[in-house]
Design brief:
The protein is mostly beta strands. The protein has one domain (12-19, 33-187): Sulfite Oxidase, Chain A, domain 2 (Alpha-Beta Complex), CATH 3.90.420. It is built from 5 helices and 11 strands, in the order αβββαββαββαββββα. The strands form 2 sheets. Strands 1, 4, 5, 8, 9 and 10 form a 6-stranded mixed β-sheet that branches. The longest helix has 5 residues, at 54-58. It is globular.
Amino acid sequence: MDTKSGNKARVPPGQRDVERKFPVLHAGEVPVIDLERWRFRIFGRVKNEVIWTWDEFMSLPKVTVCADMHCVTTWTRLDNVWEGVAFKEMMKHTEILPDAKFIMAHAYPNFTTNLPIEAVLDDDVLFAYRHDGKPLESDHGGPLRLVVPKRYAWKSAKWVRGIEFMPADRPGFWEQMGYHMSGDPWKEERMWGD
């Protein structure tokens, strides 16, 4: 547990502050992504499907967010500075149908993770392409990573390439392996049954 008085309240139960280290954890190989062929797709329970190229996505309005990151493996990294496109901004480009209650983030190569819509509507949720002033490294999810600070880091999908809006929840990659469907670090929702 973090012992610094100013940071202790920001580190969830069962977590430890790793200071400025940024551990790298993922399943499988880091994908090699060709930005000329990269596409970002919004689909599912939407009125109109939207597909952006990298250049089109990069032309969307940008935000900077300072947020903590909490990994299910018990590390916490405080004060990450993320730059990218706000989730709310991306939603302005199509009409979400009223029965859409959940999203599934789709990422390279075949990774997915689920979230309730209310979890991604916070002002600190974004699609990040920069971290701490530098382009987001591929080990950490570059070229684009979904960042959901109020959930464990596996919900912040690396190498994200699309968002599917869904009427009902369904498990993504790690959730099918037993990880919690919600992943709230303050409730220690690590595995199903927590």
